[in-house]
Amino acid sequence: MPRFSIIVPSQGVAGRLSLALDSVLAQSFGDFELIPVCDAPDAPAADVAAGYAERDSRVTPVHSPPSAGPSGARNTGMRAANGVYLLFLDGDDVLVPGALAALADRLDATGDVDVLYFEHERTPWWEGEPTNPAAPLLAKAPAGAFAPERAPEVTGVQLPAWSAAYRRAFVTDHGLAFPDGHFTDVGFGGLVTIAAERMAVLRGVVVRHLVRRQGSRLNQPGAHHFELLDQTDLVLTRATEQGLSGARSEQLFEQLFATVLKTAAHPRRLPARKRAFFRRAGKLYRRHRPTGFRRPGGRLGVQHRLLAAGAYTAFRALRGANQCATRAAQLVPRPRMLRTSLLYRRQLRRPLDPDLAVYCAYWGRGYTCNPAAIHAKARELAPHIRSVFLVEPDQAHAMPKDIDHAVIGSRRYWEVLARAKYLVNNANFAEGVVKREGSVHVQTQHGTPLKKMGVDQSTYPVVAAATGSFAKLLGRVDRWDYNLSSNRHSTQMWERAFPGSYESLEYGYPRNDVYCTATADDVARVRRELGVPDGRTAVLYAPTHRDHHTGFEAGLDLDAFCEEAGEDVVVLLRAHYFYDRGRGNSSGRIIDVTSHRSSEDVCLAADALVTDYSSIMFDYANLDRPIVVYADDWEVYQETRGVYFDLLEAPPGPVARTPQELAGVFRDGSYAGPQSRALRAAFRARFCQFDDGRAAERVVRRVLLGEPPEAIPPVLPLAERVPAPAAATLVRS
C-alpha cells in the first residue's frame, strides 16, 4: 500500500485545481496515491482530474455530490484511500517542495503515531506577508512522539484538517469521520484529539494555503454559524463520554469557546439572531465547563464571565461604540468615484425598477456582442422588461432605430444605471457605478481566453501597466452576480483571472447563437453587404492586439498573400476593435471589415479564418470551417502577453510561421484537408462545448425570468448541431 493517500476536494476551485495536483505530482517522494474528489463526472473539476488520471496511474478521481459538502467529499476520499497515512489538501492549496519527503522522514523518526501535526503557511492571495499560525502552537510540543497528556495544548480544533497527517488504521478503528455541516474541521479535529494516544509534530511548513480573495466561507454572514455550536457540543459531549483527563478537557474547552466567542463578538457574521446564538452558547458553556476550570485573564476572561452569566447586553457593549455608526453607514450605497454626479447619488436613494435592464458592450461601442444578443432575446421572451443600451456619443448615430439607448455621461445614463435591476455588460461598467442590493449584474465576457487575463496579467509589465489598478479591477468584479462561459476552459480561467463570488453560467455565448441558426440566405446576404464577389473564397484575416505595439500592424502583406494563395481568394481584414476608426480602407482584393458592427456577420461571410492568437478562432470554430494559425511571433507573444495553453501544440488547424507557408497551405488546399479537419474536430470538442444556438435563451430564462437551473434548456451535444452553411466549396480539386 502507498505511504500516503492525499485527498483533494475540488468543489468551487476547478480553476486552481491543477496547481494543487501539480504540487503533489512534483514531489520528490513518490510513494503516494492522489485522490481528487469531484462533484460529478461532468463537473469542471472532473475534466481536470480525468486528464491527470490519464497521465499518471497514481491519480484516482472519485465523486461526491455537492450536497454532501466538504465533509462528504473528504469522507468519500477516505473510503477510497489505501495509504498508511491520510493527508487532506484543499483544491486551492499546494504542497511545498519536499513536503512528502519531510513527512516520511519525520514518521520514520517518531514511529507510527496516530496523528502528526505540522505547520502551514497562509499566503495572501494578492499581496502581504505570509503567516504561519500553527508555529506558536506546535513550538511547545515535545521533541519526539508523545502522549496527549504531555502537551494538552496541542489540539486539532485550532488547526485545519490539512495541517496534519492521520494514520488511516487509527481513523478506521475509531470510526472517525468529518461531521456534516459547516466547521467540520473543528469537529473532526476535536474528535481526533480525544481519540489519539500517540502524537508528534513536524516543525516545518508542509502546506501553503492560498487565502481566497473572497475570504473563508466560514467567515461570511449567515445562520451557518450556529453549526459551530453543534460541532462544539459534539466534541465536548464525546470528551465527557471518553472521560478525558482534566488538563486535556480544559484545553479543549478553552480553545473551542475561544472560537465561539470570536464569532459572537463579530457583528457581521451574525446579521440576525445574535442573542439566540449567545444564549445557546451560554447554555453549552455552563453544561460542558470542566470542574475547576480557570477562566483566562484580560478581555477574553471578561467575555467568558459574560457568556457564563448569559449577559448578552453587556457583551454587546464590548464590541465597540462605533458598531451602530458602521452598520448605518453600510445601509447607504456610496459611489466610489469623486466625479460621480450628484444626480446619481440622488437616484441611488430611489427604489430599483424591477422591470428595467441596462446593457453595454465594449465600453459603449454600440449594439453588438453578447449584450446585444441577450437584449434581442429578452424582447422576445421577456417583453415586460424595458431595456436601455448605453453608448458613447460618437456611436449613438449607429444604434438601430428601434433600440432605446442613453449616451454615456448624460443625465439619463446616470438615472438608468442607478435604478436598473439588471445590468449586462461584456466588459465593465464605470468605476463609480454602485452595486445596489437587489440588483443583478451579468458579466457576459467577449471571448475565450488564450492570453492571460485579469490578475493573471500582473507578472507581465507591459500589460499590467496598461491594465491599471488591479484593486479597482477586482472592485468591479465584486459587482458581478453571474459570469458567462462558453466552455470549461473559460470557466476555470475566469475563476483564476477574476476571483469573486459570482456564479458561473456555462450557457455558451449568446452572440454565437447565430452560427447555429443562420441560413444559406443569411450567409449570401452578408456577403453581398460586405462586397464579397460571387464565386470567390473569402479568407477572414483577424490578427489580435499586440500590447507592445503602439498602433495597428497587419503583420502580413495581404496583397502578396492574395497573389500567392490563388486568384479566387479575397481577404476580409478585421483588425482588433482597439483600431476601429469607423471607416474602412478597402482596396483591390482586400476588404476592410474592421468597422463592421457585427463580427458574427463577418465570420458567417468567411469561408476560412486566418488569425494569430485572437479569440475569434474559438467563436469561428462553431462554424466548423477551416482555420489557419499564422504564428510568426509566437515566442514574443508568449513572453510579453502570457498565454494559458500552448496554441501550437493544440491548434484548430494548420500552423504557418512565415508568409510563404501561409500562402502555401491555401495554394495546395491543405488548409481544408483531412489533417485540418482532424485538428479542428479536437479543437471544437474542447472549446465549443456550450455554444449550441440557445445561449441567449438560457440567460434570459435564468436571469430575467428567474427560472430555476433545472428548468433551463440543456446544451445540445456537439454532434447534433448543424452549423450555418459556408458559401464556397472548401476543397479544391
Can you walk through the features of this model?
- This protein has an 8-stranded mixed β-sheet with strand order 3-2-1-4-7-6-8-5, sandwiched between helices. Strands 11-10-9-12-13-14-15 form a 7-stranded parallel β-sheet, sandwiched between helices. It has a 6-stranded parallel β-sheet with strand order 18-17-16-19-20-21, with helices on both faces.
- Mean pLDDT is 89; it is low at 321-339, 578-583 and 729-733.
- Helix 1 links the parallel strand 1 (4-9) and strand 2 (32-38).
- The chain has 733 residues and is an alpha/beta fold.
- 38% of the residues lie in helices and 14% in strands.
- The protein has 28 helices and 21 strands.
Quickly list its features.
alpha/beta; 28 helices; 733 residues
Query: Which oligomerization state do the chains in this entry correspond to?
Result: single chain
Helix content: 25-40%
Basic shape: globular
Largest sheet: 8 strands, mixed
* Tally of DSSP β-strands: 21
What is the residue-averaged pLDDT? 89
User: Largest sheet, order of strands side by side?
Assistant: 3-2-1-4-7-6-8-5
- Uncertain stretches of 5 or more adjacent residues: 321-339, 578-583, 729-733
Could you give the distance between the termini?
Answer: 61 Å
Number of helices: 28
Radius of gyration: 30 Å
Percent of residues in β-strands = 5-15%
